[in-house]
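B., you asked whether I could sanity-check this one before it goes into the benchmark set. Here's the sequence:
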Amino acid sequence: MIAVDSSVLLDMLTDDRKFAAASANAIEQALASGDVVVCDAVVAEVQTMLATDESAMDVLDEYGIHYLSTTVQAAVRAGFMQRRFRDRGGRRERVVADFLIGAHALLQCQALITRDAGFFRDYFKGLKVIVPQA
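And here's what the prediction gave me:
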């Protein structure tokens, strides 16, 4: 099972000129090898950015992407990682959703498709990160 980050989905859903094709390709490759899922934070972030009244999950279901809720263990790990980030001088631009996405992928999935590889590799050691390639 592979998790996907909001930015990658939004590249595809908004037909981003620079990243849409690479992001869609990465998702297609992941779907060919198994389940692709999103967590609570990704659903909320995608819903916020959609210019429609349609549910984010209705849209994602059309692509074969499913919802997998975040476990308590992943939520707790996210909190620990955000505290570590702040203790290291991290700025407030990094929100809790980023940490929830990383902890969900690390503890509940085998990999994460994201364009924010540096952050996830730094804070979620052992997480396999898949970066869409143009």
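One thing to flag: Residues 53 and 71 are 28 Å apart (CA to CA). Otherwise nothing jumped out at me.
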